[in-house]
Design a protein that fits this description.
By secondary structure, the protein is an all-alpha fold. 69% of the residues lie in helices and 1% in strands. It starts with a helix and ends in a 5-residue tail after the last helix. α9 runs antiparallel to α10. The chain has a two-stranded antiparallel sheet with strand order 1-2.
Length: 421
């Protein structure tokens, strides 16, 4: 007996949808790895790196265009998403300079990140979410490889290597920072994925401590603590986990003085030196002095700048196009309007994911949203990278009542089995 015609169409649609999913993830991988390579300032490879990034971005855009369906159940969410995307168009047109160099710059690092909320319009199934862990493992492997290959730059302090001082941060931002998403959802993944994610997160914390990168250090520490909490809650051996954790705390407490004395001369030297050094107030005050009320409201567009001389080496104009405090970076380009629209869309999704869900996957999505928003002060997270993409995927999870209702057992069976529901 032949299949009904509509069944053939549905199977054909699923096949096409799966193909575009694969193109999207491959595109993200190519761009992310290329962007990480670019943070080494390997100028001799810049054309090859940009080729990889361009292929990745175009593949990502091509897949999104073919998967998108402008249908959401919430009319209010539709309105706010439309306003956000329309405002993003305004940001691009407001500050766009019709030159080759400007066009090239915003193509590689300035335009796609403004339209990532379009991910909410992509229909998603469990196979889509399952592929997130696969791409994160690819990122983790690339992160480890690059840190080994460029270890001399990764472990160099800033006064030792000025030109390539942000290599570790580049590797972390473009690749490593997404590892905790697998770690926090460990119940759905194989052991090797969890160990890779844990190792990368712990490595980020250790190197960030050594290099006194306080924002990255604090973020990775928070993720590790959240993992311990989730592991305790979902473990079948709560007493054993509690005893081990208590023993670690007791051992560290009893030996804290000796550990600190031995480490302070080398490992913690840079952290001691910088301590509570204030590296933000100067640029923040310069930003605020240069901004008029209209700038605060609508921003200065995609190429917006502010007057802040004597900060960046080699900057002869005195103007900066970015600021390390990312919520101000968003305001610089798109004003309070863009920041407000983002938060209005994201916070209800986080609330739903945390308090109205039956599975850990949704709750972790809510945690990811909140931490990403909080990171807008100490870190730069509003970028074209997987961390930002995961933020909007997490928002879509928060608004997906169907996914929030699925029990953990069903997700575990799907993620660890061969099903592609």
């Amino acid at each position: 007996m032949s299949k009904p015609y509509h069944m053939d169409l549905y199977e054909s649609y699923l096949t096409e949808f799966k193909k575009y999913q694969q193109i999207m993830w491959v595109g993200i991988a190519l761009y992310g790895i290329g962007a990480a390579f670019a943070s080494t300032f390997a100028t001799g490879m810049i054309k090859l790196i940009q080729l990889f990034e361009a292929i990745g971005l175009l593949g990502f855009a091509y897949a999104i265009i073919n998967m998108i369906q402008f249908r959401l159940k919430s009319s209010l969410l539709n309105i706010f998403l439309f306003l956000y995307l329309a405002w993003s168009v305004f940001i691009i047109l407001h500050g766009y300079e019709y030159t080759y160099q400007s066009t090239k710059s915003i193509f590689f690092s300035g335009v796609f990140q403004y339209f990532l909320p379009i991910i909410l319009f992509i229909p998603k199934n469990l196979n889509f979410y399952k592929n997130i862990s696969n791409i994160i493992v690819v990122y983790c492997i690339a992160f480890v490889f690059l840190n080994i290959l460029y270890s001399d730059l990764v472990f160099a302090h800033y006064d030792e290597n000025v030109n390539q001082k942000f290599t570790f941060e580049g590797f972390t931002q473009n690749l490593g920072i997404v590892a905790p998403f697998v770690l926090l959802t460990y119940i759905y993944h194989d052991k090797y994925k969890n160990w890779i994610a844990f190792s990368v997160t712990a490595f980020i914390f250790a190197v960030a401590t050594y290099k006194a990168r306080r924002g990255v250090m604090a973020l990775s520490f928070v993720y590790l603590m959240l993992f311990l909490l989730i592991f305790y809650i979902y473990s079948n051996r709560k007493v054993l986990v509690f005893v081990i954790f208590a023993f670690i705390l007791f051992f560290v407490g009893m030996n804290a003085e000796n550990i600190y004395r031995q480490a302070s001369g080398s490992f913690l030297e840079e952290l001691q030196r910088r301590g509570a050094e204030d590296t933000r107030s100067g640029v923040e005050n310069a930003f605020k002095r240069d901004f008029e009320p209209v700038d605060w409201i609508i921003g200065r567009g995609i190429n917006g700048e502010y007057w802040c001389p004597n900060v960046d080496m080699g900057n002869t104009t005195g103007y900066r196009f970015m600021i390390e405090t990312d919520y101000l970076n968003i305001i610089l380009k798109g004003g309070i309007i863009q920041l407000a629209l983002m938060i209005i869309i994201a916070l209800p999704a986080a609330f739903k994911a945390l308090f109205y869900s039956n599975n850990l996957f949704s709750k972790v999505a809510g945690i990811w949203i909140i931490i990403w928003i909080l990171c807008l002060y100490p870190l730069n997270v509003f970028n074209m990278d997987l961390n930002h993409i995961l933020f909007w995927i997490s928002v879509s999870i928060g608004y997906s009542q169907d996914l929030r209702r699925i029990p953990d057992e069903q997700i575990i069976n799907d993620f660890k089995g061969s099903s592609s529901n």
